[in-house]
Amino acid sequence: MRIDQEKCTGCGICIPYCPAKAITIVEKKAKVDEEACFECGNCSRIRVVRCPSEAFYEQPGLYEGTRAVRKFFSDPMTTHTVTKIPGRGTEEVKTNDVTGRVHKGQIGIAVEVGRPCIGTDIKQVEKITTALGKLGIGFENMNPLTHLMDDRSKGTISPEYKGERMVSAIIEFCAPASELQSIMTVLKKVAGELDTVFSLDLIYRFDEDGVLPIIPKLDELGIRVRKNAKVNLGMGRPLETR
Amino acid sequence: MTHSLHRRGTEESLEKDYVLLVTSAYGFNHEGSKEKMRKILDEVFEVEPCNIGSYDTGTIHSGVDIQEIRDALNDVPRVRCCFSTKEQMIKVLERIKELDLGLSVTVSGLTDEVLDIAENLELQPHSINLSLEVWGNIEELPSEEVLELVTMCGHGLISSGLVENCIEKIKKGRMTARQAAVKISHPCVCGIYNPDRAEKLLEKYVPRD
Lengths: 242, 209
Description:
The structure holds 2 protein chains of 2 kinds. Chain A is an alpha+beta fold. Chain A has 2 domains: about 1-60, Alpha-Beta Plaits, CATH 3.30.70.20; about 80-220, 2-Layer Sandwich (Alpha-Beta Plaits), CATH 3.30.70.260. Helices cover about 15% and strands about 20% of the residues of chain A. In chain A, a hairpin with a 2-residue loop joins strand 2 and strand 3. In chain A, helix 3 runs antiparallel to helix 4 (about 180-190). By secondary structure, chain B is α+β, with helices and mostly antiparallel strands. Chain B has helices at about 10-15, 35-45, 65-70, 85-100, 110-120, 145-150, 160-170, 175-185, 195-205; strands at about 20-25, 50-55, 60, 80-85, 105-110, 125-135. In chain B, helix 2 (about 35-45) runs antiparallel to helix 4 and helix 8 packs across helix 9. The model of chain B has no long low-confidence stretch (mean pLDDT about 95). Chains A and B meet through helix 2, strand 5, helix 4, strand 11 and strand 12 of A and strand 1, helix 4, strand 5, helix 5 and strand 6 of B.
């Protein structure tokens, strides 16, 4: 994002809104540190910051270079060209009753790198994808991050993206539930090597009797399951029963 | 991705916080779903959610009206909103069930409460997304009080700086807890941030100078 220095009055109302802390006042004008900026679009929204002089504008060519990934991974008002889904991942559990993305006996994992609050760069993300790649993980095709990989079998990301930063990037994949322990072991190890944080999600199918046998397995591994969750109520049609 | 499942807080606070997401599945049932979603949107709005919005417009708290949200539904339409009581959540789900339009419905909240609602309505939950906490360099995170507010935005667009700025204004008497709760809501364009819950949290955590 950029600020028209002719229009900016230096009022500073935009500063607290920036998740990247990229806006500062320099010589009585607001300026964006473009290296730090996530391109989330918060500052330019007329119903969010409400810049009185409408001084914010996107830099020309934003969607044409590698910097576009900042936009796709930070601004929910953009829709990724491949996935057709706004935001930075799949619809995960939200449409699982129709898509059957996570089958019975599988776990669906999402590692949301940078969330909450810290943000991330691609180098941090790649530490995790390459660690998971050694397990032979099949990364989710309908996730924009997977499309930045130059070798999906190894989880390596094309070098040209490594300088890019974003609010968060989500690593998504499905695996047999029997691989839970090995996946969690890898994640625990790599978590200790990160400069940022990640929020971890696990999708699982209910048994016919409404039981979730994955819960005691997570407990055995010492992994805390929070008391709030997102539940797909099975109202979608056609219903996927695999 | 709308990560309503990573909302932080006590059980007491979270039991008055339900996120409703109605979603068409791209490539499966999204074609022709716009009118169906409009019907659902009308029912949802009648039950008076504490927040509702869309990726395309922003939220009712930032000056959008329901007609604008209806008009802006795109080819892969979705409804995103939030309720502050279990009774409202039951009521809106009853209406959606009665419409029986075949679009996917998820509810985020305390798991036991959501499953209780499903049982009462004779719905059979299909799958669940569990939150397994935050990992990595957690020393860099802001205080738990700030996290409770910022994690109500599923896309991470509410900055800790905005929350801290509003807290300072409440302390100085320049803003009420309600005004701060609404101001903090604006970056969450989908409308899943709960301003009622935020107001209560701010009243609890921010004594005035």
